[in-house]
Amino acid sequence: MTEKRHPLDLAITPLLSKVPLSNPALPIVPSAPGLTTPVGTSKEKRNPLGLSLPPLIPQIPGVTVPLLADNQIPLPIVQLPTPPLESPPFTASSIKPKKIGYFWTGAGDNKHKDFLATVSLDDDTFGTIIDVTDVPTSGNSPHHLGTSLDGKQLIGGGLLSLLKTQDTAFYFDTSNPYRPTFSHSNRAVLSSIVDEIRAKPDGGFFITYMGSALGTSPGRLVETDASGAITHEWPEDVAGTLNILGEQFSPHGLTIDFTRDIGITSDFVVPLSVLKPTLGIQRANTLRLWKMSTRTIISTITIPNGQGIQDVKFIPGNPEGAALATAVGPGQVWIIYPFRFRPDGGQGVAELLYDLGENAKNSMAIYSDISDDGRWAYFTITLGNHVAALDISDLNNVKRLDDPAVKQPIIGPHYVKISPDKKNLLVLGYFVQAGDISVLNTPGDFKAHWLDIEADGSLTFNRTVDFEKEFSLSRGGARPHSVVIFDLTDPEKPVYY
């Protein structure tokens, strides 16, 4: 029998003999520019699993040639792309709350299908699981989740999908917000390790892919169209490619101000460096400033000894278009002024705004959210088991609203999101547990914490959704990493965040 080879030259044998070769539930969306075939046409092609498989990395003069030359190293850990265990039946709830949380969740045993959990956030039905939407694969380590501006589509990334040679981005149709359906999945050609997601005004997304196709540096800023098909992996110009080859480019954080035509990506860690064997996690000190209309890098901004710049977000309403960035090593919040110029002539100035204290140093992850009035900022200190709150209404006089010495009832806080009505803060107690293959396994309580935001911006812990308990019998527990909130209180003005 002639052996069939996967595009990354990894042998793949038939995996799902019981699965029909044609799966009508999974449309194919090819991920390489210029190779897209409209879904549903007679020319559509499917692989046996109904998932997209990319071609070999194409040669793009001046862009991919240096990548191919520098990155010809094998992955240290490639896992057998085994099929997932079937999920047990789930009886959907008939309730229709006004506030909904969509939790992008990994099966606790890494064997059952990963899934999107639709959960009520209303007071009277809080924590009720409305529906569970499976994806076709397991072991993806679901990471960040984002929504389109019209609330019709969600996209979730898989942090470790690459290790099982699986698709890395998963799309959900939320036209019916109470019954999300899995739409399709795909992967990029030059990059992997999906992180932050931002919706485009005209439909589609910008997505940071932290690693190369092999999990090394450089990653890419990936762009999709409204259907979810990948159209570009930026930068595509020679100057931009030389920029990301010259210094570690591991984009994790992403913030975009479309009105000012500016974007910022923050470089975190080289994904491959967290897998065994490793000489140590390679952390970055840089952010890239982008001109979004041309998708080009304007300059590189450095935070001295930042040791992993995990997150960056523009401050709503700031007259200078300033952003806040988290430097994980020193446990600090820095302010980025994208339109100021440095003494060396480079665009973009970084200044220390606030030191979060000893408990935040070397905390592995510090993620953030900022209220839409630009008044309050919240930061999760993962290894410090703490959520910090700052009043940033006066950037010259930042006030801390929490007591860093108080022990909070949370373990491993990471993803954080302010509810659209600014009454609550949703924090998830889970970052990453990659198992024996990795040096990165942070403790977590696997709960969604629903905190009250007081009038002064301070926080009070209130209720939780215990995902480990909810799914312990059906999937070996659950690992919720991120969330999108829909607020349908005003049918004329729904909010998707």
Topology:
Blueprint (H helix, E strand, L loop, with lengths): L64 H6 L28 E9 L7 E6 L8 E6 L7 E6 L5 E6 L10 E5 L7 E6 L4 E9 L5 E8 L7 E5 L5 E5 L3 H9 L4 E7 L4 E6 L18 E6 L4 E7 L6 E6 L8 E5 L4 E10 L5 E9 L10 E5 L5 E6 L4 E6 L7 E2 L15 E3 L5 E5 L18 E7 L5 E8 H4 L1 H4 L2 E10 L7 E2 L1
Antiparallel strand pairs: 1-2, 1-28, 2-3, 4-5, 5-6, 6-7, 8-9, 9-10, 10-11, 12-13, 13-14, 14-15, 16-17, 17-18, 18-19, 20-21, 21-22, 22-23, 24-25, 25-26, 26-27, 28-29
InterPro entries: Quino_amine_DH_bsu, WD40/YVTN_repeat-like_dom_sf
Protein name: Methanethiol oxidase
What does this structure look like?
The protein is built from 4 helices and 29 strands. The chain has 497 residues and is mostly beta strands. It has a single domain, classed as 7 Propeller (Methylamine Dehydrogenase, Chain H). The chain is globular. It starts with 64 loop residues before the first helix and ends with a strand. 49% of the residues are buried.
